[in-house]
Sequence to fold (225 residues):
Amino acid sequence: EVQVVESGGGLIQPGGSLRLSCAPSGFNVSGSYMSWVRQAPGKGLQWVSGIYSSGRTYYGGFVKGRFTISRDSSRNTISLQMDSLRVDDTAVYFCARVYQPGWYFDLWGRGALVSVSS
Amino acid sequence: DIQMTQSPSSVSASVGDRVTITCQASQDIGDWLAWYQQQPGKGPKLLIYAAANLQSGVPSRFTGSGSGTSFTLTISSLQPEDSAAYYCQQAKTFPPTFGQGTRLEIK
Fold:
């Protein structure tokens, strides 16, 4: 079955760091465009970051250098390193495959909950 | 960033009804628009891309239309499993942005 599974969520204090991982099955991340999209509790969807098959990376304006998306082709995983976390970063973070052409998202995981609280 | 505005924010309808959800873009996005369905506790599911193209495996009762700044998602003959939140998303420019969502309740 083609799917993506997120891991690494949890409770973290403001200013802390957390690393999310996304493990696809049924396809290779090295040949795909991948993204992270988040959803604050009871709210809508917000695109966070993306990585091209070339390795080029993109971020939402609110990230402001705090997050880093990366790819490990040997492990077939995508990661999102989140530093300087704020209370308003609290959300479910979804890993999603990009459907080209255009940044549509055709495969989503169930998400990983990140709670930032003191 | 391009702003996406959906209406209504919530709708209640009966099995067999026809429901229409609209999405307005703050600037011309051509047909670079997608629709997603999200069930509680799950990730979104792509229904429609390029404004009117049905994603593989999606029932034909879902149709998308529109171009430029105005778009619609129509669900004909509602089924109980259609109870969910629906989101539009523009794919014209970075960053991709989503509407605020429409919650569909089956009476």
